[in-house]
Amino acid sequence: MDVRVMGRGPAEPFLSARDLFETEHDLAWPVEVEVREDPDERTLTGHYDDSHHVLIMSEQAARGAMARELALHEYSHMLRYEQAHPSHTQSTEEALFLALTGRSVERRKLAHCYQIANHMKDIYADDITLDVAPADKLVSFLESSLATALADRPGEAPNGSTTSGSRRLTPAADPEITVVNAAFALALCERHELVGEDHRLYDLARAAASDAPGVRFDRFKHAFRSLADDPDPSDYRKALVDVTREYAT
């Protein structure tokens, strides 16, 4: 793997992640890492027609305890893209059009639908990440993110959408999307048998579900957990359309 780190911040987390990633996988395209003082997202991955990937990370994240794990997660997104995996080739806009045509949807909920699509991409990226990295930091990240969301619930989530491929579980503490975030966290953990039934994530998920009883937690957890490893593109599109429609309507 060719990884080149530019900008302010340390190179070591990205190179360490590369070395760990290469024990099981490889990327055909080179990776340009840009460490920035204040990007729009903590992490952002892009793929370009001249056959290279770009990973943008904030300096704060690059110096944090999760830096290597964040880089591994983004390398996994890059590999899914190179594999032409349906989760990373399916247009989110197309799926939302199919799911929501003829329906009136709040702008807030539309932004959440983009986040749900990103969760589905993250499931497939983390299937790779968890092949090469211990799960402890990821589980702690999911737990702390949900705890923070439950402790701080603004009246309305900000407008906008989560960028494809970014690692950001709870960009807004809206109770309805927090239920979906909790379902994603537990689905990922159950999919890889990372936690026991007495783990605090289950208590957090129950609290989230009680705050937004109109959102069917079990439906979303099953949808995320049961995603097929290697779906047909049409099957993946249907799964994305179904889960989007479930939330928006």
Automatic annotation (TrEMBL):
It comes from the Archaea. InterPro entries: DUF5781. Residues 152-172 are annotated as: Disordered. This is DUF5781 family protein. It comes from Salinirubellus salinus.
